[in-house]
Write a structure and sequence with these properties.
This protein has 107 residues and is mostly helical. It has helices spanning 2-40, 46-78, 81-84.
Length: 107
């Protein structure tokens, strides 16, 4: 029982830390993009600036997601997932089914 609680705690900590890393990475990429836009962009062309803001926003989301997924895959290879983490989603048993997934026969 203690092991199961430990697995759930490890899972919660992993999800929390991974989410924080993902958000911080996304914000850092956004700030970097905005700084580059302010440094090299044309301040008189507001239409282009608006388009670049959207591109920077969407690009930072995409790049941070890509880096996040690579980091998670690397970490999952490094750590024994079944031993240290509880599953996030468990399949629900259907009402009236037995352990084999068959529904009981009605007589």
């Amino acid at each position: 029982m203690k092991s199961e609680k430990r697995k759930k705690a490890n899972t919660a900590i992993f999800v929390l830390v991974a989410t924080i890393i993902n958000v911080v990475l996304m914000l850092a990429l956004m700030i970097l993009g905005y700084v580059l836009l302010a440094r090299f962009g044309d301040p008189d062309n507001t239409t282009a600036a608006q388009i670049w803001l959207v591109v920077i926003f969407l690009g930072s989301i995409g790049i941070s997601w890509f880096v996040y997924s690579r980091l998670v895959k690397w970490y999952m290879k490094k750590v024994d997932v079944d031993k240290n983490f509880a599953p996030l989603i468990t399949p629900r048993r259907k009402k009236g089914s037995n352990d084999f997934g068959d529904s009981p026969k009605s007589e």
